[in-house]
From TrEMBL:
Keywords: Oxidoreductase. This is Flavin monoamine oxidase family protein. Residues 13-433 form the Amine oxidase domain. Belongs to the flavin monoamine oxidase family. Pfam families: Amino_oxidase. It comes from Nocardioides aestuarii. Gene3D superfamilies: FAD/NAD(P)-binding domain. The lineage of its organism: Bacteria, Bacillati, Actinomycetota, Actinomycetes, Propionibacteriales. InterPro entries: Amino_oxidase, FAD/NAD-bd_sf, Flavin_amine_oxidase, Flavin_MAO. Its cofactor is FAD.
Length: 437
């Protein structure tokens, strides 16, 4: 039995950020990772021409201060994301494909309705303290209310509701009818907005070397990262904890940092921590999504004045340009089954036909395509954290907190998921463990 000071379970951005700070603080750290690679939900492949294609997390924004700070420390470079791409957004519904800010099915009255909804949203968002959401007087009522019900309460027109649903699914969040209004507003507040989703705050930057390079660079600097080593049991004790791998190896440690997503965390056998904590951890859930990526030799959508950003009611809920000639697309949870149920060839053909509907026939002749079914990947079981009506209250204030010597981190432990959540909570877990708190 080896005896590191700290065992970190999971080598995604959270686990690696925690391990890096723990080592810098003088701890002897072992990271155990189930997959044969590090990075978790950030993953990249390299094309012969040198383009690094991202199959997982990709873009960040101005509000992502922990992630941006880490990138600077690692000596990596930030560059503008698709948000700076010239051209116009596209919206695709069964009856129309519209290029421009407003689709043809929105009237002047709908625009006025959207403005009223925006003003009402700003009031809700301002009422939430992102550092202490539990003190919000309206927490329980707003958490029980779906975004859809809240929009009906403020008289959103049917077209404005349809736009909101398209946007929500374009991000691969759950339907507005199945998302907690409190969680929705809390996420916006945590992202530094006082109104609806702000692209500059959330998505205007990306790492030029490829977002998975953040994970790879951190891992290269760590002393002991063990790949293909899934953990299936954690036994926490005040005088030493024991982590057992699926292969039966045991590691005794002074502290354990759990850095795996909500689904895989539920599969672990954990003892020695309170029932309330386990209930809270296991009550979290993910939106399931797939990512479809397609590489061309050039960004041909620009020829038509389109910026490659699309929201759609098709199986692909969105597309956006990842870099020159590369389009990313997400399959949202509400459409995941229809996508995952097909064989690879059919799935790819149908996805390309949808892209052709957006950007023209050239879309059907790619250099290469990739599909990652993150929702049914056993080591992710999802995509990002999702809060259905009632979930915030059920998970409760133990969310993202520690029970020393058991520490938790991961994007799920922040209000809004994302790479920022992974880095922020990873570094916070390390600071807490080093401080003994
Ligand atoms: C398709 C897609 C697109 C995304 N786009 C963006 C984006 O553009 N911007 C953004 O900010 N975020 C995005 N995200 C979210 C972001 O990638 C994640 O929130 C973040 O990378 C999660 O990091 P993490 O360390 O918390 O978890 P993970 O990256 O999931 O890492 C957890 C690690 O734990 C390992 N593990 C699981 N179970 C065990 C076990 N039993 N034993 C040992 N190891 C285990 C896993 O293999 C994994 O390596 C996207 C995610 C996906 C899937």
């Amino acid at each position: 039995m080896s005896r590191p000071d700290v065992v970190v379970v999971g080598a995604g951005l959270a686990g690696l950020s925690a391990a890096r700070d723990l080592e810098a603080g003088g701890a002897h750290v072992t990271v155990l990772e189930a997959r044969p690679r590090v990075g978790g939900r950030v993953e990249q492949v390299e094309l012969d021409d040198g383009r690094r294609v991202q199959l997982g997390g990709e873009v960040v924004g101005n509000a992502h201060t922990s992630y941006l700070g880490l990138v600077a420390e690692l000596g990596l470079t930030l560059t503008a994301s698709y948000v700076a791409e010239p051209g116009e957004v596209t919206r695709q519904v069964p009856e129309a494909v519209d290029v421009g800010e407003w689709p043809s099915w929105c009237t002047e009255a709908d625009r006025a309705s959207a403005e009223k909804v925006e003003a009402a949203l700003a009031t809700v968002v301002r009422g939430i303290d992102p550092d202490d959401p539990w003190s919000s007087p309206d927490l329980e009522r707003l958490d029980r209310t779906s975004v859809g019900d809240w929009m009906r309460e403020v008289d959103a027109s049917p077209a404005v509701m349809r736009l909101a649903e398209m946007f929500q699914l374009s991000m691969s969040d759950g339907s507005i009818e199945r998302t907690s209004m409190f969680a929705h507003a809390r996420q916006l507040r945590a992202g530094g907005s006082t109104g609806s989703y702000d692209y500059e705050q959330w998505e205007n930057l990306r790492v030029a070397e490829g977002s998975a390079s953040v994970a790879l660079t951190m891992a290269a600097g760590l002393r002991d990262v063990r790949l293909s080593t899934p953990v299936d049991r954690i036994s926490v004790g005040a005088t030493g904890s024991v982590v057992t791998t699926t292969a039966g190896e045991t590691l005794r440690a002074d502290a354990v940092v759990l850095a795996v997503p909500a689904g895989p965390a539920r599969d672990l056998d954990i003892d020695g921590v309170s029932e309330e904590r386990l209930r809270s951890l296991r009550r979290q859930r993910h939106a399931w999504a797939a990512k479809f990526v397609v590489a061309y030799d050039r960004s041909f959508w620009r020829d038509r004045g389109q910026n490659g950003l699309a929201e759609s009611e098709g199986v692909l809920g969105s597309t956006w340009p990842q870099q020159e000639g590369v389009l990313s697309a997400l399959v949202p949870p509400e459409r995941y089954a229809a996508f995952a149920a097909a064989d690879t060839e059919t799935r790819t053909r149908e996805a390309l036909a949808q892209v052709a509907g957006l950007y023209g026939a050239e879309a059907t002749s790619p250099q290469q395509t990739w599909t990652r079914l993150w929702g049914t990947d056993p080591w992710t079981q999802g995509y990002v954290t999702q809060w259905r009506p009632g979930d915030v209250t059920e998970v409760g204030p133990l969310h993202g907190t520690h029970e020393p010597p058991f520490y938790v981190c991961g994007s799920d432990q922040w209000v809004a998921g994302y790479m920022e959540g992974a880095v922020r909570t990873g570094r916070a877990a390390a600071a807490a463990a080093l401080g003994g708190g």
